[in-house]
Structures are given as C-alpha cells and as structure tokens.
Write the structure tokens for this entry.
Amino acid sequence: MIEQRHICVAGVLRHDAAPALESLLASMNTAPGQAGPGNALVPFGRLAQIHVARFVILDDPSLPDREIAPSLPVHEPVRLAFIADFDGSADVLLGDLVRVAEPGLRRIFAHCTDFDEGSGDVAAWMRGHSIVTAANYVNWRGRGTVQLREEAALHSALRTARLAHPQATPEELWPVLKQAGSGIGLTPLPSRSIGWWIREALHFLTLPVLALLLAPILIPLLPFLIILLRWRETHDPVIVPVPLPERNRLLSAQEDHDITNQYSAIGSLKPGLFRRWLTVAILFAINWGARHIYANGRLARVNTIHFASWTFLDDQRRVYFASNYDGSREAYNDDFINKVAFGLNLSFSNGLGYPRTRWLILDGARHEQDFKWYLFHHQIPTQVWYKAFPGLSNYDMARNARIRAGFERKPEGNALRRWIAEI
C-alpha cells in the first residue's frame, strides 16, 4: 500500500538573512506564494511523489505576547522550514530532491547559520535538521499521486465522451465510455499486506495500552488536574489584537489562486509543564486518531483538508501548524467553528493568548471574532507553496475514485445512472 509521509526540515537563519531569502524564494513563484512547478531553484514538478510542499520563514509575530509570561525567553530563533507531504520514504524523496535541485537548495539553505553553500552533503544536512512532527493528518491514506493523476485523466476522457453523446441512454453510453477510457493506463491499486495490517494493529494499541499504564498515576491525580485546568482557564490572559490591514493584504495576496489554499501559523504555548504535557498528550491523541479514525476523507465533520501537521519547536515552547485546505480562509475557519469547535479548542487552547475555554473543549473558538483575530495574529506568510494537482479539490479526488471503481466494474440499473451523472 502507498504510504503518504510528512517531512519538516528547519534551519536557523543567519542574522538579517530574511530579506535576501524572501527575494530568492519569490523568484520561484508565478504568483504571490505560488511556486511554478518548473522553477529554476526547486522544480517540484519533477518530483512525482510530492502532493504539496512549501518553504516558509518561521518568523513569529506573536513573540511580544511573552511579556505576560516572564518565564519564557524573550527571543527565539527565526527558522527557514521546508515541508512536504509525499508518497514513499523520506530518504528517497531527499535523494530525488537533491538530484533535481541541488544547486537551488544550496542557494536557499546558505541563508542558514550552519550550512556550507560550497560543500557538504545537502541530503545529510536536511536529514540532520528534520523535526519529527507531533501530529499529522492525511485526508485519504493510501491514495497516492499516481492514482490521483490517472483517475483525473480518466475522468477527463470520460467527460469528453459523455458530452459528445448528450442524448444517449446509460446502456448506450457504457460501451462509448469504456472505449474512451481504455486509453488511460490505470495502475492496479496496491493491496494492504499482512505486514501493513500488523503495523497498524500495533500502532492502534499504543493509545489504549499507554492509557492503561498511566491510569494508576493519572486517576488519583485527576481531581487536582481538573482543578488546575479550571483555575488556569479562568486566569490565563486572552490576546486577540485587531488585525492590521497591511498584514491582511500580505496574507490575502497569497490566497485563492487555486481551489486549494495553504495556511501557516506559529505561536507559543502557555508557560509551565502542565500546559506543555497536556499539549503533548492531545497531539499524540490527534495523531493516533488521524491514522486510525479519520483516515478516509474527513477530519471529524470537515472534509476540506488535504494535509495538516502540528510540529513542536524550541524545546516544545512553540508549535508550528501547517495545513492545505479547499476554499477560502474565511470559509475554512467557519467550517471548523460551526462543526468542530471542540476540536479547535483541544488543538490550540494551550496556546498563549487563546480565547477563554471552559473544561478544555467548551467556549474558546465559539467566541468567533476573538478566535479569528487570534488565528490572524499567529498566521504567517508562506513564501513558496506547491500543489501537484491544481484545480482538484478533495471532493474531485473522491469523485474520481468512485468513477474509476465504476469504470473497472460496470454498475447496473440506477447505479449506472448515478455513475454517469458523476462524470
């Protein structure tokens, strides 16, 4: 079975290197933040296993908020991050990346403090600066780039044939469509091996086994932890500044060039071990749920996200969140607020300045204006973003998979009509 994986490589930028780096990264784009697949520095289009990728400067606009948390350092390093969601192994991706883009990667990473532009192993440097992501979400596990390309081509061929015969009945159309699609080579879908099922079963057991092991410790502490949580919730300051028009214009310029958009946000955790370990536990559970419960098209009731990740930085003092989603930023936020506000509170309420929650999952994101201002306060521009399938939403990809299934095994009766209607 095809496995989608995530990689995050982050290096500390040299002092005052950001302006020159921003200019260099902008040369990769055909529109603000939108990478050209054949750009001269990193031609993502030559890397067939990549779904989405980005270069982003992790310059945290919310660091001044730490004035209310004197136990946190005043400064944190500014980093350059390369992030990709892809099929297969990270070693193969890095090898292919260096093969097609080594000179460009050297120019980009030369802005980092410990990178030698003239010599050294680029792939080894990237492996050494990889950060393990705390939680990762994939819209549909196992649906690789080869399948997506072939199914999109099949839909296009069938649609052309369908439009050429507007009056034909479903039974008359079937041989026409079968002929039209016969020229599209469909790679057989990989099956799930016994080894895959064993690995999944073992990983599935990690959460319940860990819960059982920790229960003798956590159950006696539970009343104290609940009181501590509630005390913190009623006393932690809320920081939701009014958005600045200039920043809004900057961020908006990078959006809505495609049906899918990118999102990057960074911020500090509330100080103290309680909030830190609560975040670790929650992200562990989110990662487990994304792998075993929400692996087939939906994150709870939301089906617009292609990929999302939560990554700790700076000894778990900060979290970087990245997502790729269908629709506008406003619709994206509204979708979550209306459908899974409790999930937003679980994911982000341990962040410094988050709107006030109740019992961890209540209120918070339900304070809509405060929540949106909080998100905006922590959003940062993504200097370079690449999507391998422009114009294809999650809905389109799921529809194409259904069309392929009907093409390979003829539906009957009303099912045939429904199948043709999807074309």
